[in-house]
Design goal:
By secondary structure, the protein is α+β, with helices and mostly antiparallel strands. A hairpin with a 5-residue loop joins strand 5 and strand 6. 17% of the residues are buried. The chain is built from one helix and nine strands.
Length: 145
């Protein structure tokens, strides 16, 4: 019993270290390759990134304040193909989708302060039994007053 517990602890610790290293690599990728795309928008300073695999999706809630212009930029490593994102309001009404546009950026104004739902989708590459591709995906939010 103790031996099994020890092996389980080692496996769990290994997974934690692997996840931590993956997150650190994504932060570095975001700083080096993505931040500049906000251009003349000020970053909100929040890091929202993760390693995503084909066939996965993630949802992020973000508060946007009235009277400001925003740029939403989804930055992904080249190994992630076909990624798209959607923006929905609190009623789940679709406000924007990048699906089929080839764009990973959305500029918009907010009339009233509200929380919006950002859904990122990495389509399944249809690779069957092959190992699924993965890569860092970051959500950057910039604003202007």
């Amino acid at each position: 019993m103790i031996k099994k517990l020890g092996i389980f602890s080692l496996i769990l610790a290994g997974l934690f270290v692997f996840n931590y290293e993956g997150q650190a690599q994504c932060k570095t990728f975001t700083k080096k390759k993505c931040i500049g795309e906000l251009s003349d928008y000020n970053s909100n300073g929040q890091y929202n990134g993760a390693v995503m695999f084909e066939g996965e999706e993630a949802t992020l809630m973000q508060t946007f304040y009235s009277g400001q212009k925003y740029r939403l930029f989804i930055c992904a490593q080249p190994s992630i193909e076909g990624l798209f994102f959607e923006v929905k309001d609190y009623r789940n009404t679709l406000l924007y989708t990048s699906e089929g546009t080839g764009s990973n950026m959305f500029d918009f104004d907010v009339e009233s302060t509200q929380q919006l739902k950002i859904r990122i989708v990495v389509p399944d590459g249809g690779s069957g039994s092959q190992i699924k591709k993965n890569g860092c995906v970051s959500v950057l939010v910039g604003f202007k007053e």
